[in-house]
Amino acid sequence: MTIKINMNKFLTFVLLLIFFAKGVNGQSVVSFKSLGFDDDVIAGVSGSSAYFIKIDPTVQIEGSKLVLLIEPSQVLVKSQSYLNILIGDKPVYSTHLSGDSIMRYTINLTKNSLTEDHKFLKVQIRTLLNISDDKCKDIDNPAMWVKVKGTSYLSLIKTTSNFFNNVNISNCFDTKRAIVYPANPTLMDLKAVGWVYARLKKTQIKQIQVYPSDHVPDSLRNYVIVGNWASIPEAKKQLLKFSPEEGQGLLYLRKTVEQLPDTAVREVSNRNSNPIFVKTVSIKPVPSEILFVTGNGDAGYNNTITTLANSNVLNSSYGDYLIINKAENVGVKTIDESRSRLTLKDMGGLTSFLTGVGSLKNSYSFKNSDFAFTPKEIEIKIVGNYANLNLNDRGFFNIYLNGILISSEKLDQSGKLNTSALINRYELQKFNTLETEFRFYPGNGNCQNSFTNYFAEINISKSYLQTKIPFIANNLSFYQYPEAFNTGKTTIILSRRTAPNTAATIGEIIYELNNNLHADNFPDFFYSDQYDKSVLKKNNIIALLEKNDPIMDEFPDAPIKFNQRFRLYNTENNRIVYELNDTVSNGLAQIFYGRGNNGTLIITGTGRNMDKAFLSAARSITDQLSTLSSNICISDEFNKYLFNISKDSDNLEYTDAKGSFALFWESYNLYILLVILVLILISFLYVRSRVQKSQESFND
């Protein structure tokens, strides 16, 4: 009996070894909608749509699948309308449309499906549609469309077999969802959190959690821990194979595989092309990663933080640890360096060869903050080539900004495109979409063979957007954030008492300051009780303060004194639209020019949930704001209110400046007047009754 039990244990041990050697695969279903791709319409006789999808390094691409769900216009002639699917610029599937209301196409993925760096999956869908026998009539028919559904998905195989080889410092940020910092953070800890947060947000992670070390949930597996080597708990230090020496910085990726409950998703039904999934929970090997951002001493710790700002170093760190003896932020640019021109290639544009008749479009995106300053006007220069037109052919080139036509010109027989257009600031938004469109119409009315006869291509390296004139206003507004901080040095000032509540907010700010094509803003950090007053005039200032911080008195140009109670009135009807209430958690942000004509942003918070108050304000001021002149933002977790207030505005009133009697009278004056009116009425009635009695006595 004893021999049998030992043999069973031995066999079990062998099976486990085989199990781990092969790795355990689990299926992960990722919808297009969860990646930020909603339903996408491909319109026109011929059109295309492209998707760039980042692939997690723990994914085994061999055996994974792409499932496209496509809804066609019901008036299309299905047998004469075609769909082509390309993976990595190579065709993998071509078919005519089926009669289903939602068509389903499944593509098996291989290692050749990924881009050269093995980080992205590029998917293109091209169409050739038909409604009638006369393609010339089909060109502008609005019913010519197919829709790529946001419910399309990737069925990815998660594996641990190559986990230790594939995951390294350069790509580990893609899988992190949280940051852990010391319970009593120093200024340098908060600076580290900010740069890690900004790095994670650049990987398009939507929800980033920030935890002090004494509030870390037990379920947390993949996260970044920051802290000076002396503040790292001993239990965590034991996970590292070595320690940094004095003055050295260290990035260390700790990788393990743990037996934990894991959720697997599998498709069980495909009714009417609508997939139905079920989730199953089982004990499986789950990869766990902890990235240590630390250093021995302040100098070593600062070296590591400086390295976080250098994408070139991080992207080329293919090992599990990086020792930093010296780090410099050499990417910082001066005001003299040109940041006034963006090529279409800089904006992420890809060279595309467009063919066919009708509308042939390309789309590009840019932000005002991609320039060194908020542009007052932008010149668009487009250079390209197109097919030589015959004598009777018609061709047009159009430019759209945010869906509005801003330029149109007729194409000639030269085949050379060299055109420009001017955008003024009233047409610009904080985030902009630029579209270019070629339109070809054959002169003989024969569209049957025109799809190969007409072509166009834009030179993305020679085409550009350029601005030389900055938009300068008397008062700074959120429309000019963050580019108002693009030139010169930026200093972040924190109130010591509320600084621990600003960790995530600092991350949002650093991300926005560097969320442009010239990411080079490396701000200094100071506490509000330990700073050089000269920086208030020399540098751009971003201050995250508690309401009663004495430093508020150093900003006489602030539209509102947040350290006092105030009311805002509607100038039209003199009604109160906002009144400061300390019991409600609000984020209060204001932007203005300082005494040195420097950009100044102050954010403070009220109420119990200070961390949420600060964070809500930081996020609200980065939205696509419709009120371009807003300089005051008051927000909570669910709402935001924007105002345009000057420091001597008539619709601003400080209630702290009033005495106790004035406040009492203001609050209860109507009631007091009503009581007085009632007393007067009673007195009148009393006197009247006495007079009547006197008259009656006299008459008797």
UniProtKB/TrEMBL annotation:
Annotated TM spans: 668-687
Main location: membrane
Name under which the protein is recorded: Uncharacterized protein
Alphabetical list of PANTHER family matching this protein: CYCLIC DI-GMP-BINDING PROTEIN
Record's keyword annotation contains Membrane: yes
Membrane topology type: Single-pass membrane protein
GO cellular component: plasma membrane
Record InterPro entries: Cell_synthase_bac (IPR018513)
